[in-house]
Amino acid sequence: MALKTVFVAFMLLLAINSQTTLGHDVKCENLDENTCAFAVSSTGKRCVLEKSMRRSGIEVYTCRSSEIEADKVTNIIESDECIKACGLDRKSLGISSDALLESQFTQKLCSVKCLNQCPNVVDLFFNLAAGEGTVLGRPVRL
User: Comparing C-alpha atoms, which of 112, 142, 106 is closest to residue 126?
Assistant: First the structure.
């Protein structure tokens, strides 16, 4: 019985740590385009992906810290499962409330799976909605 309890505790910790960087400090400027969007630095600043063009015409992606602070979340890179559950894209540029105008997006964002697995993403978009004077509705089961 004790072994079963230890196993369950280990699995729970593994699940929680699957969204974090397992003890490493997240610095937005060190993240690549596949991990930047929806990450939060160790200082609590949200990371944003930006695209620029070099003189040669090549697109370059850069991750940087935004001025937007996350509520009660630090040092996290969202898991691929979270990104998928909430209907997000790792190649999202900047932080915008535009997606809130799309009903398919808000249905995924308010789904039980997204709400339960991705508190960082939910916090971000619910705060963006509030900043726009909108309140997102109750969770919808897909």
Answer: 106
